[in-house]
Each structure stands twice: as C-alpha cells, then as structure tokens.
Design brief:
heterodimer; A: mainly beta; 3 domains; 3-stranded antiparallel sheet; B: Nuclear Transport Factor 2, Chain: A; 4-stranded antiparallel sheet; 4 helices; globular; DUF6318 domain-containing protein (chain B); DUF6318 (chain B)
Chain lengths: 299, 211
Amino acid sequence: MKLQSSNKLTMLIAFCVSIPAVLGMQAPIDPANKEDHGIRMLPESIYEDHDKKENFNYKVKPQNPQPKKQRPRDASPKEKFSIRDYESCDPNTSNARFCRSIPEERTCPDGSAPIYRQVLDAQGRVVRQYRYCPGEPPKIELPKETLTQEIIIDINKFKEYPIIPSKIISNPTKFSLKNGNTHFMATEEVQSFSSSLSGSKIRIKAIPIQWNWNYGDGTTRNLNFPGEPAPNHTLRDETPTSHSYSETGKFKVEVTTLYRGEFSVDGGPWQAIPGQAAVASTPIEIDVWRTEKELIAND
Amino acid sequence: MDTRKIAVVASVAAVALALSGCSTGSAEGQGNSPSAVSKMSPAPDSTTKNPSPSKNNTYRPASPEGPAENVPVPKLPALAKEYSEDGAASFSKFYFDLVNYAIETNNAGPIKKVTTKECIVCGVSIIDEATEAKKLGKWHVGGKHHPKILDSYISGENLAVVTVEYTADKAEIYLVPNEPDSKMDKLEPTTVAVGLEFDHGWKVYRIIGAE
C-alpha cells in the first residue's frame, strides 16, 4: 500500500526522533516538551521532572512537591526557622547594609522595589526564598512558634502606619501654557511614630526617598529628590523638576512618594526595614492653554 | 502498518539521521551570529575562519566554527577565601566565573570542586549539562552569565547566604560547525539565593530561586 508523501515525511520525522531513543542515544532535544536546554543556571530546574536525566552523575532524589502556604519541608513542630527580608536596593538611595548593585528587576505595581524573603533553618541554611510586593500577603505561612525571632516590623507592618503623603506645589498654580516649563515640586517630610508591640516600645521613622511623578499626559518620571521652590521662575525657565506639556487640555498631576522605614526597639539602635511604602498624594489639575504669540515673561 | 514496513522506514530514517545529524534547530545561515562575549580581548588570529587549534596558547572564543580554545581557568580571588560577608560575595561572583568556564569548555571539574552534592540546581543545570555536552561533542556559543551581588550575610556558623541577580546571554549550541543544533534565549534578570558553607574555603550547598 502506497503511503502519501506527506505521511511518509511525518513518519520519517517521527522516527528520526524516536530512533535515537530506541538506540540508546540521547536526543539533543526532547520534542515532547520542545525545551531547548544547555548549560545555564536555572533555579526552576529543581522542580522539573528528572526522569529523563537518569544517565547523569547526580542521582536526583525526587523532590517532595512543596505546596505553598505550608511549612518549608516536612518539619516536626519543634523545627525552628528564621526569616530574613531583603530588598532589591539602589546603592544611591538605600541605607541597606550591603547594597552594591542596582538591580534590574521590575518594580512592584506601586512603584516600590520587590522584597525577597528568605527562610532559614535553625542552623542558618537557606531553605526557601520568595519574592513579594508590599501589601501582598506572605506566600509561606510560618506559625509563630516555629520562628526563632518574631518579625518585629516588616514592610507590611510599616505600611500600616499613617504616613502622610507629600503635597504637590506647582508654579503656576492652576494653569499653564503649551510648551511652557511648568514647575512642580513635592514636600519632603521625615515622619515619626511610636507604638508598642509585645510589651516593647517601638519607634518608627518614615524617610522619603523617591518621588514618582505622573504628569497626566502619558509621561512619568521617577526622581530621588522632591524639587525646590522656584520663586522667580517663569514659563521660559526649565527647572530640575519642571515639565512641559506639548498639548493643551486639563491634566491630572500625581506623585507617589516612596518612604523607607527604620525602627528602634526600647531605645535600641535604628534598624532598616527592607522595602518601601508607596504613598500617593492628592492629585492636582493643571489646565494648559495655548498662545498664538510667544511666551511673555511675567514682568 | 506492519513491522516490515516499520523496519524499512526505520532503517531509512536511521541513515537519514546519520547523514544529517537530525538537526532540528534553526536553519543554516542565520542572520545574527551570536557574539561570544569575553572579558579578554580576542587573540589577533581569532577572526580567521581556520578551525584548527592555534599554535600558541592564545584564547579564542567559541564560534559557529568550533568551540572556545585555551580558556584560562578562573583564579580564586584572595577575598573569596575569607570567612566574611565580603568574602562570601566575592566567592559567589567567582562561582559564576566557573559557570561561564564550564559553558565555554564543557569542563565541570573546577566547579565541582566547590559544589556539594546537596546542590541539585548546580548539578542538574550546570554540571550534568556540561558533562552531557562534553560526551556528545556539543559546544555553546554565547550563554555567558552576568551576575550582580545584591546582598550577602553570614546566616549561621560557617554559613552564608548571598543574593545574586544575574542574566545570561542568548546561546546557540552546535554539534556540527555552522549548523545550530538548539538555542537558548537571553535570560532576563533572575534572582537566586546562594547558600554557602565554609570549611577552609567556601562551597555552594544550595541555589534557590524566588517563588
């Protein structure tokens, strides 16, 4: 019986792939999952199916699938863990103890840096790591009694404090002209709070470190300074924080201030809290007009 | 289909396989030949297409023509021998130098010496892959890892945890000159926690990704 040529081709390809397996050779690619692999550090490889790697030197014991929201491994209730939060930091603005490189990872939806929470066993060996954004609940729930040390203040606790947002000041105040340099600045205020936790007195500091602007015309800008008053400013003058609208219209200008936190227990040394609290300010509206003539300086 | 026909098609396929190397990678003559990124300046004769080994010991990066040659073994920096946060950080950077060395040479010997059997990720994604590539005679062009140390701390007695963010260049893997066999895309910034233990020197016992 004659096979159609396309059927032949399909079969040829199918055998081309299966024959090596039959002959005991290792096919360079497993067509079933179409995964190209090579020498590359891939932390996810720990969760892959290891059956096809029997020829290798490392006898991999099948990992117990680790369900989330449970303890890191089959631990007896006596097993203790500790938690360490680390934030992806910018050495220019961060006070973090060890911050040498600016990470490239995407920021969280609120504009702050994602936090890595590392879970260590009682000896100090790292067991799990996960990434979360401020405001998100923890992915791994560790019952309090398994923690060697209570988390005093983490980013989510820090965000619960009533941190006051910056105020936006613009010059001119409510209107501007197309292609003019509208000056904006935000207020900058370190804020202090105190509370008690488990019988200890805790002091908190919220320090603004970044101002993320949204000018309402599709442009945004992140600055690590708030801007300064510019009393003699005119629309002809650019300032480090001014913005120029290329279209007329009403624009809603917003700024989100990122605050980093520090805490001190019972008058002890200040400790940094990994992460930033993003606090949004009340927007202002700028009404941009056009002028047929050239910009006229305010005499 | 009866067994005889299967046998016929199978033998035809086996011959075809032997002849063509059964390459299912992208077609020949790709537009972009990936650059084998290297810290060292390329040897003067590296631009020639001559695939035979250089007579002197100059380094030559990998190309579609053939694997890298005379790749120097990374040297352990003095700081990386220290039991300290900075020492652990320096060692972690060095560990990635060994990863890059394994990619260029398929030689997992150096990295094995500083990895414990407990590190599954090290074993599966680096050491075993390099061993397999060596066995099959495959070589990588590209794929270099670029690590950034974000954090380092001593987590317990003789233990450290270093957080590393790294990217990896795209790579093409060759079995036969000028015929890419498979490829790996560029790896976007990935953050891992590297667990290190210290016993007259650092060793990696675990690499964990972020969930």
